[in-house]
Specification:
heterotrimer; A alpha+beta (200); B alpha/beta (399); C alpha+beta (264); A: 200 residues; alpha+beta; 3 helices; 19% helix; C: 264 residues; 9-stranded antiparallel beta sheet; 10 strands
């Protein structure tokens, strides 16, 4: 059977429902003419989310809905993401590494690289500090994890550029509760390790 | 790499898989340029694995790959030792322990800190999604716990293992470090590390881990080897190599040596060569490479050549670029100051000596690119003072 | 694997000599160069090319949309302050929040939290953002999480495009009653997981309405769910899945798509 383009005026465009789905599928690359218009309609005009779905079904909105479970549809709003302008703002990786900082020098830092695109032996590189944005400099420390991506970026005008980018991970510091919980389990492990737990 | 079709390659391979005699002490050193592992036969088919690195060709722990090749009985692996927790010394360590059902897990006494076990639990309960550098230790501890075998903590002058033959002590393994002062300081440092880990959520940093390394003195009959791990020297009598040379407890001098910390100057102490070693011992260096730097340096090799004429290296580090598309290569050159792939090998230096030979006579074999350092070969090693490297301002002058 | 590369415009192979250093480095061997040529040749002769890719994380639970203002993200250190200041496309309301940053879109309703990106360079950053958010909001009840990968591929050759559809769904049976039938969409589900979690994996394949002509769209929904544990909101499970399974999930999804495309 050949693959054919669907008739966009057909009502079957929206009919993608699966009884067993839990709704974690996503119409991520959908067509939304105006997100603000839609949001305003939902919020200010008190349009019920189900009504919004119906409007989409009638073609009033070009919303590409996927896999709404009928049973939970009343609780699940339509998934409308991506402004139309985002359709063309994209990045496809040609090469991606997961890296961690080995050493920090005056104006540069050395890192170990793990190739995520074509896994193989690890590599190392030295980067000048200017490759890191000023707001991210404080993240550059021994052990810090970052990603290095080289790929093609397509902007809203359709222009393509090859881009190289370093992005440091941002994770929140652990809370006192987290540390306390780890301490409790750590003590238990420590007592076993040192034989304390077997003493009377 | 092994020659596949040459007669000499076949002969070398046959020699490599020839197991040691029951009364032979064997030490096999593996050092692929990043990572290190030492496999020891301590008599009567009993083995010890000290540290672990991965085979570049199979991804398996190098120690297990070798032991399989010589058809060793894994149930007679007596212990798996983590001399310290630098990433390059523990890759595949937990696999080694899992494969050795009767082995003890031996770790530095500096691990006996509640802060350290708390760090392990922090990473367990708050995973990073990337390697933390501690998974191997965590997995090995879990394995030991499942087996109901409490790990053995190594402290200075503690006998870790011994073996008897005809009612006599025949083999022993003794830790010469970490010293009490090092353990205490280690606990304080780990406390600071815990605060960093909680705040910054990255991989564990080095934080003086080398101080807490276990140096092993291993004897089988008259054959004695000293494994220097990564212990460095700080000029302090209570820590590093000075703590060993100044110790009141003296062991017999070793006749073979694993040079500590990849031959670095920071791990050198003259007294080690005069008080702990017989003159001119066969000495093995496992190299190390990170970014544009590597150990041993040319100067290190020249220094070691002055101390022994039986100097061996498991491989000579090389710098290679992994081929990629033109676009990617161009962007790499525009982004990074320097980049290279560590060219890993399966280089092996193997020493064997009969327990009863007096003095101990070592036979040395080299496989898969390992070399004996002679003459002007020091020039093949990284020289931080060379003209090329002077143009790399990010390179620290002292290693 | 090769389907993900764009063929280079000029298939030259440039072998970079390694910089001479005292380690005795050697130039890349000719054998390596010829293997590299083979790789390029294989890339150029792939029937499809990846045109658009994106990833999303969808969490189902009970959320408070009003929290997720740009300022909140920067005050918690989750994004640089400049990104928060520059954010202009956002709607924040008790019922619905939609926030668009250069690299991620976040949409939150009472029942759903969705973070997505069309920039492959930021797949991990989106995951980190979600981990960070729910490390801070660790009492948020949640029961399900989906790690989704979407790709649009273009067939360069129309005959191969038709042949691909025919291989997926042979038309002989359909021709008995329909004239010139065409495949529009296909869904395949693996109803159980083999990694110890509950959930399923669903693969949707359909004609792309973004890449025309000759475009095929894939979506792999890697769905995890867990029973509510007593007293526990479920965040810990979600964070563990994101930390431990994200990379594996995307790799598996890519392999799945590549495997289907390989029949072309």
């Amino acid at each position: 059977m050949t693959l054919t383009q669907p008739d966009r005026s057909s009502s079957t465009l929206i009919e993608r429902r699966h009884e067993d789905t839990a709704g974690t599928e996503l119409a991520m690359l959908s067509h939304v003419r105006d997100l603000r218009l839609l949001a305003r309609r939902v919020i200010q005009e008190n349009v019920d989310v189900d009504q919004t779905v119906e409007m989409a079904n009638r073609g009033d909105l070009e919303v590409n809905l996927l896999a709404l479970n009928r049973k939970t549809a009343t609780r699940l709003p339509p998934m409308f993401l991506d402004l139309r302008s985002d359709e063309r703002d994209r990045f496809i990786s040609l090469q991606k590494w997961e890296c961690y900082v080995l050493e920090v020098y005056a104006d540069s830092f050395a890192a170990r690289l793990l190739d995520l695109t074509n896994p193989g032996p690890e590599e190392e590189a030295v980067f000048p500090m200017r490759r890191v944005s000023a707001e991210d400099r404080w993240l550059v420390r021994t052990g810090a994890v970052f990603y290095w991506n080289i790929g093609e970026h397509t902007d809203v005008t359709g222009r393509q550029r090859t881009v190289s980018e370093l992005r440091f991970r941002r994770l929140p510091a652990l809370t006192n509760d987290d540390i306390a919980a780890a301490r409790r389990e750590g003590k238990e492990l420590h007592d076993w390790l040192t034989g304390e737990s077997s003493k009377g | 790499m092994k020659a596949k079709n040459s007669t000499t390659g076949l002969l070398a391979n046959q020699a490599r898989v020839n197991p040691p005699a029951a009364d032979e002490l064997e030490i096999s050193f593996f050092g692929p340029s990043y990572g290190e592992s030492v496999v020891l036969h301590v008599g009567d088919g009993q083995w010890l694995i000290v540290d672990s690195c991965l085979s570049p060709s199979t991804g398996e722990p190098q120690a297990l790959e070798y032991l399989k090749a010589i058809r060793a009985d894994f149930s007679r692996i007596r212990a798996v030792v983590a001399t310290h927790w630098d990433n390059d010394h523990i890759r595949g360590l937990s696999q080694c322990l899992v494969a050795a059902p009767n082995a003890d897990f031996i770790i530095s006494g500096a691990f006996s800190s509640e802060d350290f076990t708390t760090i392990l639990r922090i990473y367990d309960k708050n995973p990073l999604g990337v390697s933390t550098g501690l998974e191997e230790i965590d997995r090995a501890l879990r394995c030991a716990r499942t087996r109901g075998r409490q790990p053995v903590l190594a402290f200075a002058n503690k006998r870790l293992l011994e073996a008897q033959r005809a009612g006599q002590q025949w083999a022993e393994v003794v830790a010469l470090s970490p010293s009490d002062a090092t353990v205490l300081e280690g606990h304080l440092n780990i406390g600071k590390l815990l605060q960093e880990v909680a705040k910054h959520r990255g991989r564990v940093t080095s934080a003086n881990r080398n101080d807490r390394s276990i140096v092993l003195w291993i004897r089988l009959g008259n054959a004695i080897v000293l494994l220097g791990s990564d212990l460095e020297e700080a000029g302090d009598r209570d820590s590093g190599w000075s703590a060993i040379t100044f110790s009141n407890i003296k062991k017999a001098k070793a006749t073979a040596f694993k040079v500590p910390h990849h031959g670095s100057k920071s791990s050198h102490l003259d007294e080690v060569w005069t008080e702990l070693l017989e003159p001119n011992p066969p000495s093995v260096v496992t190299p190390w490479k990170v970014a544009a730097r590597s150990l041993p340096t040319r100067q290190d090799v020249e220094r070691l050549q002055g101390l022994t004429d039986q100097l061996y290296v498991t491989t000579i580090p090389q710098n290679k670029r992994r081929p990629r598309s033109v676009e990617v290569d161009q962007m790499v050159r525009l982004t990074a100051l320097d980049m290279g792939q560590v060219f890993l090998t399966t280089g092996q230096v193997r020493l064997r000596a009969r327990a009863g030979s007096q003095p101990a006579r070592w036979t040395t074999e080299m496989f898969n690119g390992a070399k004996k350092i002679e003459g002007q070969m020091a020039k093949a090693f990284f020289d931080p003072l060379s003209h090329t490297n002077r143009n790399r301002p990010w390179l620290p002058r002292q290693l | 694997m090769f389907a993900r590369f764009r063929p280079p415009a000029r298939p030259t192979v440039q072998v970079w000599p390694t910089a001479h250093d005292a380690c005795g480095s050697t130039a890349i061997s000719l054998d390596t160069a010829s293997r590299f040529e083979n790789i390029l040749h294989a890339i150029e002769n792939q029937p499809t090319s990846l045109e658009i890719t994106g990833s999303s994380l969808v969490l189902l639970g009970d959320f408070n949309p009003a929290i997720f203002q740009p300022h909140w993200f920067s005050s918690q250190g989750l994004i640089p302050p400049a990104e928060a200041r520059e954010a202009k496309d956002f709607v924040v309301h008790n019922e619905l929040t939609v926030l668009k940053l250069p690299w991620v879109q976040v949409q939150v309703t009472h029942k759903q939290f969705i973070a997505s990106t069309t920039q492959e360079s930021h797949f991990e950053a989106v995951r980190d953002l979600v981990i960070s958010i729910f490390s801070l909001l660790k009492h948020t009840p949640m029961q399900k999480i989906g790690i989704n990968l979407e790709q649009h591929h273009r067939f360069a050759d129309v005959e191969r495009y038709k042949e691909f559809g025919h291989k997926l769904a042979p038309k002989d049976a359909w021709r008995k009653t329909l004239t010139d039938p065409g495949l529009v969409k296909m869904i395949v589900v693996q109803n159980t997981r083999d990694d110890g979690y509950r959930g399923h994996i669903q693969v949707d394949l359909e004609v792309s309405d973004r890449v025309r002509p000759g475009g095929v769209y894939f979506r792999v929904n890697d769905h995890f769910e867990w029973p509510p544990a007593e007293g526990a909101p479920g965040t810990e499970t979600a964070l563990k899945i994101l930390s431990n399974e994200f990379k594996k999930s995307l790799n598996r999804s890519r392999k799945t798509i590549d495997s289907i495309l390989s029949i072309a």
